[in-house]
Amino acid sequence: xxxxxxxxxxxxxxxxxxxxxxxxxxxxxxxxxxxxxxxxxxxxxxxxxxxxxxxxxxxxxxxxxxxxxxxxxxxxxxxxxxxxxxxxxxxxxxxxxxxxxxxxxxxxxxxxxxxxxxxxxxxxxxxxxxxxxxxxxxxxxxxxxxxxxxxxxxxxxxxxxxxxxxxxxxxxxxxxxxxxxxxxxxxxxxxxxxxxxxxxxxxxxxxxxxxxxxxxxxxxxxxxxxxxxxxxxxxxxxxxxxxxxxxxxxxxxxxxxxxxxxxxxxxxxxxxxxxxxxxxxxxxxxxxxxxxxxxxxxxxxxxxxxxxxxxxxxxxxxxxxxxxxxxxxxxxxxxxxxxxxxxxxxxxxxxxxxxxxxxxxxxxxxxxxxxxxxxxxxxxxxxxxxxxx
Length: 389
Hints:
Layout: H1 6-13, E1 20-24, H2 37-42, E2 48-54, E3 73-75, E4 80-84, H3 94-97, E5 102-105, H4 117-131, E6 134-138, E7 150-153, E8 168-170, H5 175-185, E9 192-195, H6 223-232, E10 252-255, H7 260-268, E11 275-282, E12 294-301, H8 309-323, H9 343-348, H10 352-358, H11 363-369, H12 371-381
Parallel strand pairs: 1-2, 1-5, 2-4, 5-6, 6-9
Antiparallel strand pairs: 3-4, 7-8, 10-12, 11-12
Helix pairs in contact: 4-5, 6-8, 8-11
């Protein structure tokens, strides 16, 4: 039995009747018939679609590069303004919110702290609180399930648009549950309503839920990408290719100084639960090492339930650093307009993980060092869960 999305339940309820509505969305904001929420709203005779807001990569998800801003515009088909919330502002301005009765948020998160859509949501909650506008968040599945929580906690002083609040790298929550956490626990205090899904339970991955999959961002093509992403996104803070410029971003990882077969053999000798590292050679078409042959691996997840993506990401960083003989480098600032902290530390939300890697602490031990903080987070997290196993 397939699930019912929050957006499907909202639009069937009549709750928006007579309202002027703004919607935060992108190409993944579709229902099971692959009809976009903006089209559904525009077709409702008793609802006025007044504005569209797009997150990072744009409303149409056409901005490929990771940190490039997108501009504002006007949607010719629906005849409404389109505001970019990854532009000169990350927060909707009072002018953008003027005249709205309700701001609907229908974004597909991928279950990782650094994915910016959840902070676009947080900033929308802040703007709605400021301007007295109600927010309705339409819940969608966490594509990598809602049971496993893993990774370092974001520490004070490391806040950025890839991490506003102290949560672990893999948070194990839906975007609706995060909305409740941000609004209540982190005291945003907006007038918030979350429309839950029907039929989703925490152990479900995206394919278990039979939910529609549309790329939520240009380098998130498949569910396989999302499963490895909480760990291999760390390569954005290094000079190792995370596979951008290939058809398998974040699954392929490599660098010009690596011999693929020997590298993969050493990794597989670690007997990492739930993972096999296949030797791979690739040539990125753009981004790091564009048009240069890279040796490395493709991660094949053999058991989702035992695979720990953040630990694997740290293990891979450790392996590429050891294989580099001085070629490996931490990427230098800036990253997301932060000019002082190392990008790797911004991604981790702490300098401790990098310092442990530099000190030669094995990835498995680094992973164990996160556990106490994860346990404490889970006590907070439980108060805001909507679904159960």
